[in-house]
Design goal:
mainly alpha, two-stranded antiparallel ribbon, 14 helices
């Protein structure tokens, strides 16, 4: 609870300070700082979804709905699809987020879908569109209780999160009417897109683009897939000064193997697990400075080269479309 209180206090303080100062040179600094804090709030809601925020499911779901609605994420819709992701991580067809497309699917993708899903930097703005229409090859929406992501018993939960979202839209509309479009553009809408970029960057790099360009990450089907194998395809990263700010989300391997572990135990657990995993653990490259600029290269490389996997085969790797002959 202290982490949530600190995040909310920082978000409120940043907004109040920037609004009072209202200087052109301060707004870009505010956008980056507040967008990062929106991302931190998402991680708190993420822990609620894994039931690691508290021992009370009711409290977890209440806090999750509030924190996620505040940044325009439907908590239960996201929580259930994220559960699908964790239960099928590393599986070509059954994984839910940032899963690969097959060659035949890739060949039939529309130009704009390829641009938004498989290109740098446009893929870093994909998250709201994923919430609305999911990934290529998947049908439905995180807002639709009739989507095949959800069981009939989960219908009410999805609608509850939709109601929280409608409430947040009402709050944003009221604030816009009171403060004006320009103020809300600076205070909320630009930080929101910074948050989206954080989310897409971090979640993509957890499953793609090892720092070693010669290393290829496997994806599995059929009997070759297992929960452990899928979990070991995830990647830890070092985000420099942001590691603590976003609640150690960089320790992703242990999180996938033990998803109900609270974030404040992940660093210690990772150190212990390394001794067990041995060569199956990929040590992340350390940031040489406070900002994780070293991650730009693998992010850009992966979004450029990791385009599709083979239609068949139980262990497959990303491939790139052949360049047209000149």
């Amino acid at each position: 609870m202290a982490y949530l209180a600190a995040d909310v206090a920082i978000v409120a303080g940043l907004a109040a300070g920037a609004f009072a100062l209202n200087q052109w040179w301060a707004w870009p600094l505010y956008w980056m700082a507040q967008g990062t804090m929106f991302w931190a709030l998402f991680v708190v809601g993420h822990d609620c979804g894994h039931q690691s925020f508290s021992s009370s499911r009711h409290l977890n779901d209440l806090v999750g709905n509030i924190t996620h609605a505040s940044i325009l994420v439907p908590y239960h819709g996201w929580r259930i699809s994220h559960r699908t992701h964790h239960g099928n991580h590393g599986h070509v067809e059954n994984d839910e987020s940032w899963h690969p497309v097959t060659k035949s699917m890739y060949d039939n993708l529309e130009h704009w879908t390829k641009l938004g899903r498989l290109s740098f930097p446009w893929s870093l703005f994909a998250y709201p569109f994923y919430l609305w229409k999911r990934s290529p090859g998947k049908e439905g929406s995180h807002y639709d209780p009739n989507c095949d992501l959800f069981q009939p018993s989960e219908r009410r939960m999805v609608l509850t999160s939709d109601a929280f979202m409608v409430g947040m839209l009402g709050v944003l509309a009221a604030c816009t009417a009171k403060l004006g479009v320009a103020a809300m553009f600076n205070l909320y809408f630009v930080p929101y897109w910074v948050f989206v970029m954080w989310l897409d960057t971090v979640t993509y790099l957890h499953h793609h683009g090892p720092e070693d360009a010669s290393m290829k990450m496997p994806w599995y089907r059929g009997e070759q897939w297992s929960y452990l194998r899928g979990g070991l395809t995830t990647l830890d990263r070092d985000y420099g000064i942001f590691n603590k700010i976003h609640h150690n989300i960089e320790t992703h391997v242990v999180h996938h193997l033990f998803p109900q572990m609270p974030h404040y135990n992940l660093v210690e657990a990772t150190e212990a697990a390394k001794k067990v995993m041995g060569p199956y653990y990929r040590e992340p490259e350390k940031s040489s400075g406070p900002l994780p600029l070293h991650l730009i290269a693998p992010l850009k490389r992966s979004l450029t080269e990791d385009q599709f996997v083979a239609d068949e085969g139980d262990i497959v790797y990303y491939q790139k479309e052949a360049e047209p002959a000149t």
